[in-house]
Amino acid sequence: MEQFLLTVISVFFVLTLIWTIRKGLKLKVKARAWIFAIAALLLIPFGLAWCVTSFGENEPTAGYMGIFVFSGLGIISVILAYKEFFPGAVSGKTEKGSSTPIGKLVLVCAIGLLVALTLPLSIVTRNMTRTLSDKEKAQQMVFDHLLSDQALPNVVKKGLAYETLYAGYPSHLKFRMIQSMVSGVENEQMVHLLDTILPEKERKRLLNELAGATEQWFTTDNAYPDYALEPMPYFEKIEGNPEMVVRWIYHNFSLPEMKRATLENVVAGNFSENFDDYMQSPPDSLKERMIVPAANALGKQLESAEVPAYINIGDEMKTGMDEAEVLGIKKKIRGASTLLKNLWILPVILIGLLVFILFRSIGKSKRLKWMGWSLLGIGVLGLLFSLPLQNVYATTSDIVLRLSEKAPPPALALIEALSYPLLDQAARPALTLLYAIVLLGGLLLILAYAKGFTTFFNAFNAKNVRYGQAKKTA
Q1: For the whole model, what pTM was predicted?
Q2: What does the DSSP 8-state code read for residue 144?
Q3: What's the CA gap between 36 and 38, in Å, rounded?
Q4: 325, 333, 404, 453 - which has most CB atoms within 10 Å?
Q5: CA distances to 109, 362, 441 from 365, in Å
Q6: Mean pLDDT throughout 208-218?
Q7: CA–CA distance, 56 with 60 (Å, rounded to integer)
Q8: Are the C-beta atoms of 131 and 111 separated by less than 8 Å?
Q9: What angle, 0 to 180 degrees and rounded to 10, lies between the N-to-C axes of helices 102-133 and 71-85?
């Protein structure tokens, strides 16, 4: 995509350069007009190319700076040189053969720029809000990319990786070892453990309950959601199968080699009641012998753990936010959702205004050309502004990086897992429409300039025929 846009910019530069030189020599424009024209020819393509390459390097701020600063100065240069290359344009005449007034040219360009900015944005935001507001679609997306057997192991590993990357290594050596060991577990083995504790069907049921409670909370005036989790049944599955957990750990964790003193105690039959002493790799001949005492030590450690029978989400929210604050956030979310859903009205109004200007103020002989150039410009600029959507993975990584100082590492893993499919699904229709606009604009320009192309090729062929006849005569 980057190469395609750079090629389009290069072709635009060459064609515009040829046209400018021919037009300027024909009209014998002043030196000042040449300076502004050359400045425009250099600044506009340079700003566009800067934008394309900056987005390709995942630097959107630099990209917008290039297009607004350099290309903006180029547009100002075009305005300053326009009346020299189009004599009579300032007078406002629109008779046949006269130039289009500069005011209307600037207005059409400004409206086209706004359409190029708002059209892809409105499509993407509308698709995202429609997905999130549809309970079934949102629930299926969360399950497929977060809670399914295929996705959950990767999310867990990504969360541990972000824990190390953004939160730093934990000070306690045991936690550091656990992070490292879990990251190296194969996905199939992780799924085996997860399905023993919380099977995929159970995860789907919990997600359905949570989605229903969330929908009810947003559609009512209640300040806090009415939903409670019951972690005890799942904890009891671990507590009731300590031997299975120990076997899984010995099979999947790369434990450090057992210390000599611990090994001597195991051989003598003196087993520790501290489970940490079993987080070492014994010789293969002693592994089976250590399973039962390790499971007993793990069982005693789990018995001392304090696990609440219920976790009420509403009660947890009450400790951090008062009722007025929660209601204010809900109101803002509803307002933002309504705005984003209806943002598509703005580009539709702008497109209608653009069509009205073209058909009301432009002569019939020029309408096809103006419509073609307008659509081509809107499509190309829209693709430029949509460059972050064409590399969703890089955009998602940039979002995670920007949130790394505000959100905890596990939340970053959840954001990455959900934002990628959400952006990808929302961006495809916008990009497809922009490509279609580019093709339609190009087709209209071909039709508009068909007579000129025919005249050019006929003249070129006639010149070749005359040259051949003269050569044959000689």
Answers
A1: 0.70
A2: I
A3: 6
A4: 404
A5: 19, 8, 17
A6: 87
A7: 9
A8: no
A9: 150
